[in-house]
User: Which sequence fits this backbone?
């Protein structure tokens, strides 16, 4: 066992004295683009289920918000991992191990097999979306990440322009020929910011939805904040990690509309707007992670992100000028 893993095992046994005599395998979990590190502890005693150790840093302001977000979601009945222990000084959090099966792993299965899994995921998200921003007090809002307002939407759009359009594509974005695109961006962020907000997951995509015994469990929700439910729905339906047909998206839009008693045409319109916003953010992230942080595997998702964004801009005529920025 590497010395680093041995040290983590010693600290874990100190935190859980009953495991002092239990042999253990420590397995690093290499996944995702965050600065958090995850380790799975597999104990030799079959009566002792495996656990996950998350080690975070303070480099990102959302990292310390994982524990309060977990407790908040659990109080709403959302399926999230149980917190087994916390060490605030070392920035350690021990968690229930939900296993390794996620929604992304089923991307090649038939739609008849995938559909109930997606519906289960949306049902969990709906529990979050049922909390209106107006029901939150100032203290609760202050404990979360900044809510989605016009400024945050503008930040996401500028992130896309800086890292993807200028950084990855090497294109200028301030030229006169892009005036219509900038007008479309401004209109989009104003339109989204005017809508009523609720709690949102913020990164609701296939790799952040774990599956166990036919049920969906959510992870990576430290970005919990007030925003638009449609942003979460769009994040799942236009996830660049997964190929999804338009007919499949329509199935899920109908399911979500029925689940929450929403008007389907209005839901579809706002989800499409949110899809454009979310895909710009994702493309900015893929470019930044691959070009500036050495995580080159994210570059492979850029073509799917571009296809999805182009398709959305085709569906919404008011966003057609955006295509000149990236196609």
Assistant:
């Amino acid at each position: 066992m590497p010395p680093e893993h041995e040290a983590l095992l010693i600290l874990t046994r100190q935190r859980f004295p009953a495991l002092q005599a239990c042999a253990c395998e420590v397995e690093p979990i290499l996944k995702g683009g965050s600065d958090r590190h995850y380790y799975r502890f597999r104990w030799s005693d079959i009566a002792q289920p495996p656990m996950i150790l998350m080690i975070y840093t303070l480099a990102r302001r959302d990292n310390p918000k994982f524990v309060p977000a977990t407790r908040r979601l659990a109080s709403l009945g959302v399926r999230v991992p149980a917190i087994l222990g916390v060490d605030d000084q070392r920035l350690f959090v021990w968690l229930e191990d939900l296993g390794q099966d996620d929604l992304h792993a089923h991307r090649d299965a038939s739609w008849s097999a995938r559909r109930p899994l997606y519906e289960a995921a949306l049902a969990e998200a709906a529990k979050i979306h049922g909390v209106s921003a107006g029901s939150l007090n100032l203290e609760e809002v202050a404990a979360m990440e900044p809510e989605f307002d016009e400024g945050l939407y503008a930040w996401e759009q500028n992130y896309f322009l800086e890292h993807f359009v200028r950084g990855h594509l090497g294109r200028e974005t301030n030229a006169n020929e892009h005036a219509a695109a900038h007008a479309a961006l401004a209109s989009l962020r104003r339109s989204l910011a005017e809508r009523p907000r609720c709690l949102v997951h913020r990164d609701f995509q296939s790799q952040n939805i774990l599956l166990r015994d036919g049920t969906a469990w959510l992870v990576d929700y430290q970005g919990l904040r007030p925003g638009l439910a449609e942003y979460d729905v769009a994040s799942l339906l236009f996830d660049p990690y997964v190929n999804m047909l338009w007919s499949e998206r329509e199935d899920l839009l109908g399911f979500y509309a029925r689940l929450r008693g929403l008007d389907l045409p209005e839901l579809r319109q706002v989800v499409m707007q949110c899809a454009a916003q979310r895909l710009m953010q994702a493309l900015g992230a893929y470019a930044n992670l691959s070009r500036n942080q050495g995580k080159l595997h994210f570059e492979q998702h850029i073509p799917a992100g571009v296809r999805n964004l182009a398709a959305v801009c085709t569906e919404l005529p008011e966003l057609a000028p955006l295509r000149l920025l990236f196609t």
About this structure: The radius of gyration is 21 Å. The CA atoms of residues 61 and 180 lie 35 Å apart. The chain is about 45% helix and 15% strand. The chain has a mean pLDDT of 95.
